[in-house]
Structure formats: structure tokens, C-alpha cells
Design brief:
homotetramer, alpha+beta, 8 helices, binds 2'-deoxyguanosine-5'-triphosphate, binds triphosphate, binds magnesium ion
Amino acid sequence: MAKSQYEYVKAFETAEKGLLNTWMVIRLDGHSFSKFCIQHDFEKPSDIRCIELMNHAARSVMKVFPEMVLAYGQSDEYSFIFPPKCNVYGRRKSKIVSTCASLFSSAFVFHWATYFPGSKLQHPPSFDGRMICYPTLHNMRDYLCWRQADCHINNLYNTVFWALVLKGGMEQKAAAESLKGTVSGDKHEILFTQFDINYSRLPEVYRKGTTLHWASEEETHVRTTNKAHQPSPDEGRILG
Amino acid sequence: MAKSQYEYVKAFETAEKGLLNTWMVIRLDGHSFSKFCIQHDFEKPSDIRCIELMNHAARSVMKVFPEMVLAYGQSDEYSFIFPPKCNVYGRRKSKIVSTCASLFSSAFVFHWATYFPGSKLQHPPSFDGRMICYPTLHNMRDYLCWRQADCHINNLYNTVFWALVLKGGMEQKAAAESLKGTVSGDKHEILFTQFDINYSRLPEVYRKGTTLHWASEEETHVRTTNKAHQPSPDEGRILG
Amino acid sequence: MAKSQYEYVKAFETAEKGLLNTWMVIRLDGHSFSKFCIQHDFEKPSDIRCIELMNHAARSVMKVFPEMVLAYGQSDEYSFIFPPKCNVYGRRKSKIVSTCASLFSSAFVFHWATYFPGSKLQHPPSFDGRMICYPTLHNMRDYLCWRQADCHINNLYNTVFWALVLKGGMEQKAAAESLKGTVSGDKHEILFTQFDINYSRLPEVYRKGTTLHWASEEETHVRTTNKAHQPSPDEGRILG
Amino acid sequence: MAKSQYEYVKAFETAEKGLLNTWMVIRLDGHSFSKFCIQHDFEKPSDIRCIELMNHAARSVMKVFPEMVLAYGQSDEYSFIFPPKCNVYGRRKSKIVSTCASLFSSAFVFHWATYFPGSKLQHPPSFDGRMICYPTLHNMRDYLCWRQADCHINNLYNTVFWALVLKGGMEQKAAAESLKGTVSGDKHEILFTQFDINYSRLPEVYRKGTTLHWASEEETHVRTTNKAHQPSPDEGRILG
Ligand SMILES: Nc1nc2c(ncn2[C@H]2C[C@H](O)[C@@H](COP(=O)(O)OP(=O)(O)OP(=O)(O)O)O2)c(=O)[nH]1
Ligand SMILES: Nc1nc2c(ncn2[C@H]2C[C@H](O)[C@@H](COP(=O)(O)OP(=O)(O)OP(=O)(O)O)O2)c(=O)[nH]1
Ligand SMILES: Nc1nc2c(ncn2[C@H]2C[C@H](O)[C@@H](COP(=O)(O)OP(=O)(O)OP(=O)(O)O)O2)c(=O)[nH]1
Ligand SMILES: Nc1nc2c(ncn2[C@H]2C[C@H](O)[C@@H](COP(=O)(O)OP(=O)(O)OP(=O)(O)O)O2)c(=O)[nH]1
Ligand SMILES: O=P(O)(O)OP(=O)(O)OP(=O)(O)O
Ligand SMILES: O=P(O)(O)OP(=O)(O)OP(=O)(O)O
Ligand SMILES: O=P(O)(O)OP(=O)(O)OP(=O)(O)O
Ligand SMILES: O=P(O)(O)OP(=O)(O)OP(=O)(O)O
Ligand SMILES: [Mg+2]
Ligand SMILES: [Mg+2]
Ligand SMILES: [Mg+2]
Ligand SMILES: [Mg+2]
Ligand SMILES: [Mg+2]
Ligand SMILES: [Mg+2]
Ligand SMILES: [Mg+2]
Ligand SMILES: [Mg+2]
Ligand SMILES: [Mg+2]
Ligand SMILES: [Mg+2]
Ligand SMILES: [Mg+2]
Ligand SMILES: [Mg+2]
């Protein structure tokens, strides 16, 4: 079984690369997380244990890739950002994306018990990944704004929805029905008048997601910008 | 924070696809596994616990992708094969590759304790992934022959090397030196005369790796072809 | 102005390649040929001078690429076929496609006066190009059947349409209206009963297009299979 | 011959695109132009008729693509620049590159007789093409500097080389030998002392190539910046 006669098959490999001098973003997203959250009885609309586990997994990824400048997480997704000058793995898309997805998933399972001490992980979860390249800082910021706006809209909706269901005693169907056509202001209003919740005083981590970046050189660890349970009144812009 | 003004950034996503009507192979490979094996005190040259954990993780992947027709594993790598007609995830490379890498890693950590009951996992391991497309069955078979030949060559070498070191008491450097320039026959000879080992009677799982395929329809579970510790005299060809 | 400080920009080039061991097809298609045909007062539905000029241009392309095994032309398009083993220009898509489009266009203009002696070329025409890879001979044949079926359908329609207009004295709008909903048999019928035209006796070159392949080794020139004006009763299949 | 059963082959087409919001450069380059120049007895080192024909062909391309902001030509090559916002043909690489290569070649042949009235075109020439994407204006400028530096270096070398051969009576081999190891200053010196040529007084069009851009809105034609035979003392930078 001489290996050489078969080695020609290696030449079928391709290696698509992220365009040089562009920001490379890797976004991971949990596979069928809606189901996963129900299976594991996550708190609604957001489970702080899940957020912190996601953040821990994201820190594990960043520690392996010191070139990353920022990571942003919300819901079941995390985005990792490599700067334009970065040449990690020759910018090979598959290599970078698969390694990030692998590391994140591996760390998620690895640290599960720390964040869900009483809850057994039912099955191995998975996260898909993709790379997107952005040529300008402006595009890069808009990407983060896009993901953060997604966080904001979903979280506001989910917060009202679950308030109506869990505190207001409505059926899920009726709650959904009653929210049809409502705008942002209406939802704030419902929360405030019916449930005495000032939405903008809820912890930032729920409303805005989590940004990870490197701390100053003296401290070499990753720092999490948004601290859970510490409400903050101002709605800052990402990278602003 | 209207989401719509940022949504244009979604258009920067690309979705490279595996060419239609070709075999799609996903190969995963452990990141820095040489180090990982030492850190976890794996048996040399192969640790059956690792092989069985890898196989378990691979079965987890196959169960999520019933379209896969075969998987082949050896050393720290696993290859998964989708047939030409398969349209999973629209054949998107990143989506498929990242999901496989994620699932495999997740399952590897998830089942670690089952296969390494006394050994704590030190850190989350990772596996990179890539997709390779083969237009013909002939190329597809040659791919598997290539990986199996790799298994064979490395395993024969490592078996002699570690016999010389662990049983023969040689220094690693001296063992490596003494094997320079030896051909396959020489290595069989050394094993047989110096260590009374008939290489071709060693368990197939070490010499040939593991092939996973679907059992007949009655049984719906994944079946592992090569059983560890059951030596078999004939060196069959993959897919032969 | 030292060149070296700028040479880094060369690294931004990418070189997508046709997957190894697949058939590579280059299809060229005339840009806005409907307009071009009117501007140059082409005969309707097909102008044999145009067909022969296209064939000449295609032969020029084939002579530059002896690796091509076949070319097929109809209407304002031509497809060139490289076999799976071919390694021309390392299978770089842009290099191959652009060279074919360039050569074809260049030859089209170069030989214009030979085929249109009395008619001045009004402006430089252009042809776009693309590469498509087919993994199997079956797919490759179906591609040619697809293009030939396109030829057949369009030519049958155009033949009836222009008969109605040019010989039947109908307005173009009325002719188009009268053909709505008709099937192939209806069109044969109209041609036969109203214009005494037996469609299947019209020259093959109009009904089937032109296939170019290499003649036997003794003759080293390119041979055109379909001869214009020589009606042939049987409708052969491409590559059949 | 129903077309529908074959139409599935269309799905094998791919459409790689230039990354959004990047500069798209199309560079065309003459195939085997060294030979072509000899065959057509071009003047050495540069033939102004060829330059002007190339410029004319390039203007033809620009007129078809009003989105182009600039074109730069030298030797047997031309680069065409689309700005980041441009969405021509959905930014499809093959479509854009092949159309440019086709148009340029077509126009080159079309206008040949105007620039080479006494000289018959021997055979249809061809130009290959590629697309390169640049994320920043800085990269875009460096690209043009790279091509202009290439022009400068080659033109200086060729000017001295052909002066030594044609005016100095040296054999080509001896001339090449005598220039080995010489730097820019040496070549200026040889030209000045031996042939009374002040290199920087030679027409810019030879030393710097040609830049095409759109004239002010009042005039709607394409304007050629560098005028042949009009020496200009200052060596301006591209886009500077
Ligand atoms: N209850 C609860 N649900 C959460 C939490 N974090 C995320 N989720 C849920 C909300 C959404 O249903 C889901 C994320 O939305 P996706 O669009 O990613 O959907 P999903 O992952 O189900 O499908 P996919 O496989 O990504 O297409 O995860 C949490 O902390 N608590
Ligand atoms: N002792 C021991 N070593 C193993 C076993 N399975 C795999 N290995 C080691 C042998 C090789 O050093 C390594 C696999 O080779 P690779 O070429 O994949 O190298 P590695 O993963 O270190 O680097 P990479 O990140 O893939 O470039 O894993 C095992 O069961 N026992
Ligand atoms: N009268 C006449 N028309 C022809 C002849 N050969 C081709 N044509 C016309 C028929 C069609 O209108 C046109 C080819 O169809 P296409 O779909 O390629 O359209 P066209 O080139 O106009 O647009 P495109 O730029 O390819 O999207 O050329 C000919 O010999 N005589
Ligand atoms: N005598 C003369 N030669 C020229 C003129 N313009 C270009 N050339 C020649 C100089 C070079 O030999 C050649 C262009 O260099 P390339 O690197 O593009 O080489 P070539 O086209 O031969 O090969 P290629 O097919 O591009 O790899 O064309 C001209 O005006 N007069
Ligand atoms: O891992 P290999 O041997 O297939 O080789 P590679 O992909 O070229 O290298 P790397 O693993 O470093 O990405
Ligand atoms: O692959 P999917 O199904 O997640 O779909 P998508 O088009 O990638 O969409 P999204 O970015 O919303 O996950
Ligand atoms: O033409 P160049 O110098 O850009 O180099 P290349 O594209 O690598 O080579 P070729 O012209 O032979 O395709
Ligand atoms: O020309 P077609 O019919 O193959 O279709 P297309 O390539 O999608 O369209 P276009 O010619 O406009 O690029
Ligand atoms: Mg998704
Ligand atoms: Mg999800
Ligand atoms: Mg999500
Ligand atoms: Mg590797
Ligand atoms: Mg490895
Ligand atoms: Mg390996
Ligand atoms: Mg078209
Ligand atoms: Mg057309
Ligand atoms: Mg057409
Ligand atoms: Mg070249
Ligand atoms: Mg050239
Ligand atoms: Mg050149």
C-alpha cells in the first residue's frame, strides 16, 4: 500500500481566503437553540447562566487567537473579529471558521457544569460558523450595530412576551397576538404600566449583549465589558 | 436603533458551495494533538480509549447527518463522506464544515469521561475542518486509500519506534536514528525478531483505522466495522 | 519610484480554479446580439454568414487550445469543452475564460469582412464568458443536450414567426399572438400547410447548431460536423 | 427533445463576485506580445501606434462601462478601475472580466487599420484578464504605482538597450550583458553621454504610460491625460 500513488487526491483541496486587508468576522450561531433552551429549561427570555457560559467559551476562543481584537455575543451567537492586517492561518476561511466553531463548542461543553451545576447537559450542542469580510471600519461598525440592534429588538420583544405569559397569565398565542403591530414605545409602555418594569433599567447585558476585548497590557486577561445585573442608564453604541 | 439601516452588511456574506454531483468529504484533524496526547498521557503508539472516543464522536456526527454514507477515522483525524446527490445545507461549505467540526468537538468533550474515567480533560480540544470535493468514485476511493495508507505507514513506524524505546530501552533519538532508511519489511522484521510481535496480527483497528457506515435498515444504529483487539489476518482494502 | 514597495498588491490576486478531474465548459454569449443583428441587417431567423463567421471564430479558439475536445455553437453563443484531465493554465477560471472570450471576439472581427463582404461592421461586438464544471460524462452530455434543445426550440419558433411575418404578411405582434400556446406539432403544421415548409428538411445547421471536433490525426485541421445547406433527415443526438 | 429535463445543468454554474465595497480592478495583458510585436515589426522600445491603438481600445471599453473611474495602460496591458460602490453585473467576476477582455480585443482588431495603415494584422491577438479587489484607496493607489513603476523600469531598460543595439551597433547579447548590474542612474548616464538623450525629456507617454479618465460633464468624451510626443519635465505620481 504505497501512499504515493494516492497522494494526488490532496491536490483537490481548495483554500478560499478572506480578502487581504479586510476585517474578518467569524459569526457562530447555535444550532436549533430554541429547542436546546427548552430542553434545558433555560430562563426566559434570557438565562444569565447561558450568557455567562457563552462568554466563557468566547474567552477561550480569544485566548487561542490573540490576533482577535473584539468579540460580540448575544442570544445563541458570537462574532469574533480579526483586524485587516491579521494573517492567521494564511486567512484560510475553512481553517479559521472550523477552528473557532470547534473551540467554542468544545469549551461550551467543557464549562457547562460550572454554569449549570444542577442541570445535566442532554446532548452535545453545536454551532455553525461563517466568515464575512468587511473592507472598511465603517462597514465593520455597522456589522456590530446590526447584531446589537438584533439583540435589542429580540430582547425587548421577548421581555414583553414572557412578562405577558409568565406574569400576566396570558396564553403564548394570545400574547403574540396582542403584540402584533406594536412598536418599540408600545412595548416599553406595556412593561411599565402592566408590570412596573422600566426596560431601560434592565441589566445592559440583556439589552445590549456582551463585548469582549483585551484589557490593558498590564492585565493580560480578557475583559468583559458588560457586567450582568448592573443596570446602566445610557444606551451606548458599539465601538462608539 | 433601527435595524434596517445596518442590514446591508448581510449582503457581504458569501456562500461557497461544494460542486454539485461530487462527493463531499469533510476531514477534521485535531489541533496540536501531539501535545494533547502527551498532556493526557495517552498510550503509545495508540490509545484505544482515544480511538473509541473519536469513534463515538464520529457516530454523533453521523447521527445528525443521515445523508452521510461513510466515515473513516485514524490518528487524530476523521473524514465524513456525503454522496454526490446530497443537498445538505444547499452544499454550503462553511455551514457544513463548521457544523461537523463543532459537533465532533462537542461530542468529544461530552463523552470524554466515559472513555477516560480516571483522567481529567485538561482543556477544551479543537479540530479544524475542510471540505474536499471528488468528482468520481475512483477519486473518492483513492482518497480513502490515501488516508488508510497514512494510517498504515504511521502506525507501523510508531509501533516499532515505541517498541524500541519502551521495550528495547533505547533513547528516542537513537530509536529514530536506527529507523532511518528502513523500509516496511525491515520494520516487520525488527518487531518480529526483537520483540516477538507479528505486526499483521495486531488488531486491525490500529493498523487500518475505523470505518463507520450505516447498518442494514432493520438495525438503525451506526456500526463500527473494525473491532478493537480482534486481530484479523487479511489486510483488506477500504471500500474493496 | 522603487517597484518593490508596491509589489505587495500582487498578493491580493486570487485564482479560482475549475475543480480537478471535471469537464470544464466555457460558454460565450454575444452581448445584446438582438440589437447587433438588427443593426447589421442579419437574415431571419438565422443568417448563415453569421453562423459561418461564428464557426470560424470558434475554430480559431480551438487551434489555440488543442486540449479542447469539442465545441458547440448556436445562435449567438459557443461552448468549448476541456476534458477532465486537462491542466491548461492550471485550470485558472479567469485566465481561461477571458482568453477564450478575447480570442473569439478578436477572430470574429478579424474575419468579419470575409463573411460579410458588403456589410461594414458598425462597432466592436463583445461576448461574455463563464466556466462551468461537470463531474460526469452524463452531466456533460446533458449540458450539450440542453444547449441543443435551446437551439431547436428557438429555431422552430423563429422559423414559424418569421414565415408568418415575412411570407404571411402578418404584423410581428399578431404573429407572436397567434403562436401563443402552440406546441411543437402545431408549429410544424403551420409551416407545412401555410408555407409548404417541411421543418425537418431544413438544413441541420439551423435546427441543431454546429459541433466542432478534431479530425483524425492525418488531417490536422478542425472539422465542422454540420454542413450548412445540406439537409439531413435524421435528428441525431449530441455525442450520441 | 424536451428542454426541461436538461435544465438542471444550469445549476452547476457558480458566480464568484468581487467583494462588496472594494475597488475592482480588471487587468488585461496581451498574450505572447513579445512575439506579436516582432511579427508586426513594432518600433522599439515602444511603438506609438500600438500605444494609441491600445488607448483607443481602452476608451471603447470605458464607453461601455460608464461606472469605470479610471484606466491605466502601459506596454501590452491595461487596467480598468470600478469604484467600491459599483454594482455592474452584480459584481460577477467572470462576466465582468470576460466582457472587458472581449471588448478590448474586439476594438483592438476593429481599429487596427486606423493606427497601422500600412501593416496587415497577421492573426487575431488575444488578451487575458483578471479581477483584483482592493479594500482601500491606499491599496488602490499602490496598485497603480506598481504598474507605473513597472512601466518606468521596463521603459528605461528598453530605451537604453535598444539605443545600444540600434544606435550603438552592439549585438543584443552584448548590450544585455553591459547593462547587467546597472542602476537607474547608470542608465540615464549612458543615454546622455553616449546618445545625447535626456531620458526625462522623452515623452511622458513612454515613461509613464497612459491614464484615461472622464472629462468634465460638459465634454462627455473620454480624455487621455498623457499626450504622446509632448515631453514634460516633471515626473508626476499616479493619482497624486
Ligand atoms: N429561553 C431562552 N432562550 C434563548 C436564550 N438564548 C437564546 N435563546 C433562544 C431564542 C431563540 O429561539 C434562539 C436563537 O434564535 P435562532 O434564530 O438562532 O434560532 P435557532 O437556534 O433555534 O435555529 P437555527 O438552528 O439557528 O436556525 O435561542 C436564553 O438565554 N433563554
Ligand atoms: N500517543 C498517542 N499519540 C497519538 C494518538 N493519536 C494521535 N496521536 C498523535 C500522533 C501525532 O503526533 C498526532 C497527530 O498528528 P498531526 O499531524 O495531526 O499533528 P498535530 O495534531 O500535533 O498538529 P496539527 O495541529 O494537526 O498540525 O497525534 C494516540 O492514540 N496515542
Ligand atoms: N436575425 C438573426 N438574429 C440572430 C441570429 N443569431 C442570433 N440572433 C439573435 C436572436 C436573439 O435575439 C439573440 C440571442 O439571444 P440572447 O438571449 O443571447 O440575447 P441578447 O444577446 O440580445 O442579450 P444578452 O446580452 O445575451 O443578454 O440573437 C441570426 O443569425 N439572425
Ligand atoms: N517592440 C515593442 N515591444 C512591445 C511594445 N509594447 C509591448 N511590447 C513587448 C515588450 C514585452 O516583450 C511584451 C510584454 O511583456 P509580457 O510580460 O506581457 O510578455 P508577453 O506578452 O510576451 O507574454 P505573456 O503572454 O503576457 O506571458 O510586449 C511596443 O510598443 N514595441
Ligand atoms: O493538515 P494537512 O497535512 O492536510 O496540511 P495543511 O492543511 O496544508 O496544513 P495545516 O494543517 O497546517 O493547515
Ligand atoms: O443557514 P441558515 O439556515 O442559518 O440561514 P442563513 O441564510 O445563514 O441565515 P442566518 O444568518 O439568519 O442564520
Ligand atoms: O502575468 P503576471 O505577471 O501577472 O503573472 P501570472 O498571472 O502569475 O502568470 P501568467 O501570465 O502566466 O498567467
Ligand atoms: O445568459 P444566461 O441565460 O445564462 O443568464 P445569466 O447569466 O443569469 O444572465 P446574464 O446573461 O444577464 O448574465
Ligand atoms: Mg442561521
Ligand atoms: Mg441558532
Ligand atoms: Mg441565533
Ligand atoms: Mg493540518
Ligand atoms: Mg492534528
Ligand atoms: Mg492528524
Ligand atoms: Mg446571458
Ligand atoms: Mg446574447
Ligand atoms: Mg444567446
Ligand atoms: Mg501574465
Ligand atoms: Mg503579455
Ligand atoms: Mg505585459
